[in-house]
Amino acid sequence: MSRPDGYALVTGSSRGIGAATAIALAADGWPLRVNYRADESGANEVVAKIEAAGGSATAVQGDVAEAADVKRLLEPGERGPVLVLVNNAGLRRDGLSPQIEDEQWQQVIDVNLTATFRATREALTPMLRARFGRVVNVASIVGPRANAGQANYAASKAGVIGFTKTVAVEVARRGVTVNAVAPGFIETALTEEILGKDLEKEIPARRVGSPDEVAACIRFLASDQASYVTGTTLTVDGGLSA
Amino acid sequence: MPTDVTTDNVEKTIYDGLVELGTERGDLSREATLESLDVDSLDLVELAQIVEDEFGVELRGDDVKDVKTVGEVIDLVVSKAG
After folding, report:
1. Torsion, Cα of A28, A33, A35, A41 (10° steps)
2. Does A121 contact B at CB distance below 8 Å?
3. Would you give the end-to-end CA distance of chain B in angstroms?
4. By the CB < 8 Å criterion, does A49 face chain B?
5. What are phi and psi of A230, to 5 degrees?
6. What's residue A146's pLDDT?
7. Which of A33, A117, B34, B39 could form a disulfide with A9 if both were Cys (CB 3.0 to 4.6 A apart)?
């Protein structure tokens, strides 16, 4: 089966899991849109790495919390529509529930959940028309599992998993798959302040994960080989939630 | 430039779109029901995109949820453009 022409878009891919994912998808031949909100130099580095490996990529600024930016990120280009969408951009604003402000709640929901919905909505029709599409949402083991101080984050990520399952069954008959990955503790900027607190002892693998290990799972879910995998959440946590 | 929204133009676009989505051209008529043509909810999503690309008319989920026949789809597009 020949794959239709199009782009892969990874939101929030100037660093961490997003950057590793962009590089992995480029290795599979997808022209990449490397999205960043503020870290332009990080995004340019990712683009340079992809190009050095023989791939094609463009850094694209856009704040996924803004509806108009999401629309723009998903506009078709010379090589077609976005056919692989990785909703990765994420935000944490931790606090105990009694102390979470409305703004802290809303920001996390906007970036982690609403942006995932908007980007997926925008991407789906071209994917349906192409009879091919891959949406991979970056959820978390927090959501299905509790983590004190992250009620907003947990709600957003549990929402992403419910959203993933429902959209998956809506579009499965058109060759479009929608899946999630649920990383555990991964070494990224988002987790650096909580890592190193004897955390490794609680993880069966006795170590935190790397962005590349999550990216490998996303790459699989985005591949032709994963054509019969949809509506699932692949946990990548060294056994933590087993 | 979007195509002019005349009933004839819309009918042609809808008919061509439905054929592209797998309907037999000989089965098409204004009176044919979407159900009898096996046009499902995702087909309608795609048809809405075809209409938007051609005429710049946006059909939302609420607009099409009560539509039963091909003729009603055509009339809906024409009325939305008006």
Report:
1. 90
2. no
3. 17
4. no
5. -150, 145
6. 94
7. A33
Q: Is-contact A111 A89, C-beta < 8 A?
A: yes
Reported as a single tens digit per residue, the pLDDT across A156-209 is 999 999 999 999 999 999 999 999 999 999 998 766 666 666 788 899 999 999
Report the topology of domain B7-81: 1.10.1200
Query: At which residue do the structure tokens 């938007």 appear?
Result: B52
What is the value of pTM for the model shown? Answer: 0.94
Compute and round to an integer the Cα radius of gyration of chain A: 17
C-alpha R_g of chain B: 11
Helices A16-27 + A211-221 axis angle, to 10: 50
With beta carbons less than 8 A apart as the criterion, state whether A231 and A178 touch. Answer: yes
pLDDT per position as a tens digit, B16-42: 999 999 999 999 999 999 999 999 999
State the pairing for strand pair A133-138/A82-87: parallel
CA A29 to chain centre: 19
Q: What does pLDDT average to over chain A?
A: 95
Residue A98: other Cβ atoms inside 10 A: 6
Please give the residue of chain A at the shortest CA–CA distance from B50: A129
β-strand partners of A85: A9, A135
What are the chain A neighbours of B21 within 8 Å (beta carbons)?
Answer: none
**Vertex A39, ends A36 and A44: CA angle to 5°?**
80
Please state the domain extents for chain B.
7-81
Nearest CA in chain A to B48: A125
Report ipTM (2 d.p.).
0.88
DSSP-H helix ranges across chain A:
16-27, 40-52, 67-73, 102-109, 115-130, 151-171, 211-221
Distances (CA, A) of A27 to A3, A180, A185: 15, 21, 25
Query: Token pair 């239709």 is at which residue?
Result: A4
